[in-house]
Amino acid sequence: MPASRRPWPRDVVMDAASTLSVPRPTADPVRLRAAFAHCRQLARTHYENFTVGSWLLPRRLRDEIAAVYAFARGADDIADEGEPGPHRLRRLGLWKEKLLACAQDPEAVDDPVFLALGYTIARHALPVGTLGDLLEAFRRDAAGETRSFATFSDVLAYCRYSANPVGRIVLALFGYQDAERQERSDDICTALQLTNFWQDVAQDHARGRVYVPEEDLGRFPGSREAIAAGRANPAFRGLLAFEVERTRTLFTRGLPLAGLVEGRLAREVRMFAGGGLALLDRIAAVDHDVLGARPTLGRADLVRIMWRGLLG
Description:
Blueprint: H1 29-46, H2 59-80, H3 86-104, H4 112-124, H5 128-142, H6 152-162, H7 164-173, H8 179-199, H9 201-206, H10 214-219, H11 223-229, H12 234-254, H13 263-285, H14 299-311
């Protein structure tokens, strides 16, 4: 994610017509510049799937997106550190306290991530409750509440906290906070999360987690044993085919979002959804055997996704 050419956009100071109380730039611009640089570095070193197209986002928003990402990544690291228990829950509690504090006064928190995040919240009127929803997903992970899910509805409820807030926050950065766009964004974000789950069945099982709902494992007798053995059988392949197809349905339902937003964000929506659909295609291409090897996208896949996103 490229660096910004100035420590803070010039229009951060509230103009006379603005109704939003935006903090004025810090008295120490070097500190603010360093805070955003820290967030950009975290984003560069931690990005995982579906990063193609991020360079298309407006330069004026790349710092803010990096700040949100650094906040979420930090909480994720806390939730995944060691065994679930009180220590991780306490650290997440402190993370939430910093979130609430920086929303009140960005310079009150002595942490570069929250300095950058606080200015981002104020400038774009980001919903603090939505940022807090992300922390709820991490709290559930840290408490050991996400080792398995009884129903698909339970998985979707988890995605409501773990995935959907990210899309809603990006929409808010672009000035969209209406229900219709948020719902279509939720479809895409949930589909991306599910795609990761199906891609990582073997890796998650090794960590003691199974995101495939129990009701679906029961619907395909023998699939549970295949996951435990790490070897695909017809039941498991049928199970993954079922999950892949209903994930495609979510992508299809969410794709109209690209027509409801403008310019670069529309291209980014198409690329993220395209990346998810391409990964589903890759899973199908190996006959839904994600236990033998983890399906990934190659350079040629990413180039195709980029061009399709650019051309609409």
